[in-house]
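_Per-residue structure_
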Amino acid sequence: MQLFFRPLLSDLNTFIILVLISAIGYILSKIYEARIVAFISLLGGALAPIFLTSIISNSPFLYLSFLLLICFGALAISLSIRW
C-alpha cells in the first residue's frame, strides 16, 4: 500500500506551515493577553508534529528545531503576559 502513497507537502513546507500556525497563535495570545489562547496554541504547536510522523521519522532535526522554537515562544509569552 505504500507504493501509492505520495506526500502532499515536503517536510520543509510542513515545517513552515507549523511555524506559521504557531506564530498566529502567539500573536493572538499577545493581542488578547489571554493565557488560555497561549496554552492552546503552545499545546497544539507541541502536539502537531507528533501527528505528522513523517517529520519525526524522516528529519528529526526539523522536529527538534520546531520544539526549540515552541519553547522560546513559551518563554516570550510567559514573560510578556506575566504568566
Remarks:
- The chain has four helices and no strands.
